Amino acid sequence: MFLPLYFRTKRMRCLVVGGGQVAARKVEMLLAAGCSLTVVAPAIDDPIRNAVDSGSLSWRARPYTPGDCEGYQLVVAATPHKEINRTVSIEAQRLGIPVNVVDAPELCTVIFSAVWRDGPLTISVSSGGAAPFMAAAIRDRISRVACGMGAWVEAAGRFRAAVRAGVTDPTERNGLYRSFTARIQNLPPENMPESQKLGDWLKWLDRSRPSQ
Fold this sequence. Notes:
By secondary structure, this protein is α/β, with parallel strands linked by helices.
């Protein structure tokens, strides 16, 4: 069983062992997350080479050797060779580094979920490594329903900041949060205040309250 967690990935030191198509997909995901990335592989596919040429990552043009995992915060093994992937997993686990081995959940201490983002909103779906293609299909179905909700999350962040600055009682805070989520059902996000002043939000809540 895997516990869903979100890591702060900006400048996280990550190692990808492998340079083929599978490794390229992981590289794309990690770069998009802001990771500081190193690839170890004797050869690399064009997407990785383009990232190397642009200075987005470092490439060590050689096979994996023991000790390569040291100093990293996340390791991904994505070679076509099962024994190499297993060796990488064993080393990473010995060092206490989270490791993902592509297509081998039994060698993973962390797995990648199928992710969809809309501004500050992130939706991720995981099959626990059993069927990643199904997780992607479910993600796509959810994203069609959630499209545009990122704007609501941005507004909710402003509202939460206003409530936390102006209300100290936890029960009252929770009541305001429930009022917010109840009011947004049929309102476009552009009608909400841009400020973080509690008074503006309380007026909005009152104005948005359905007629009795």
